[in-house]
User: What shape does this take?
Amino acid sequence: MIFNNNLEIFTKTYICAMDYPSKVLAKAVEEISGLPGIGKKSALRLALHLLKQPESQSIALGDALKNLVTEIKYCKECHNFSDSEICSICANEKRNAELLCVVEDVRDVMALESTGKYTGKYLVLGGKISPMEGVGPNQLNISAIEKKVNEGAVKELIFALSATMEGDTTAYYIYKKFKNFSVQFTSIARGIAVGEELEYADEISLGRSIQNRVPYNEKD
Assistant: This one.
């Protein structure tokens, strides 16, 4: 109880001063504050919260973060996160290999999977074409699409990209590159608001979008 009270006093004092009595604590705050959306004050609160918890809990968190970096792989087939060389979706023989859903990010795969409405496979591009950010086609996993299309297994390419200028540019580039192949091009229905990132769409709208996909038109 005394320890917790002292921590509360310490928090109020050093959040304002940002003068750490411990180099270990200062290093922890520095590393935590490097995470997106977390400033020095929030990082200090998190570090102090961890000090209040049982040692085993903090160690378990540290081990989980270490394993996150050292053990997660990218699926050789679709570039999704995986614990093995081939992810569970690509390894699932019940998934329809003729359907290939092209997404920007691993989070988009998670969003679509949460709907339970899609039974095909995926290809994670790893981003979208954005000249302003220095991202061109060569920085994306577009060559993986070419490999699958050349193998002849893919019958339909589904664009599930964000409804932004960059997303539309990426879809158009892929369409132009593969339009002479015997592949049908479709896009998820625009029940998703223009400018909205796929990962933030609600599950019902996203599920309907993948079910009610429409033919892709280069003028879209």
In short: The chain has nine helices and seven strands. The chain has a mean pLDDT of 85. The beta strands are 73-74, 81-82, 96-103, 120-124, 156-159, 184-187, 214-215.
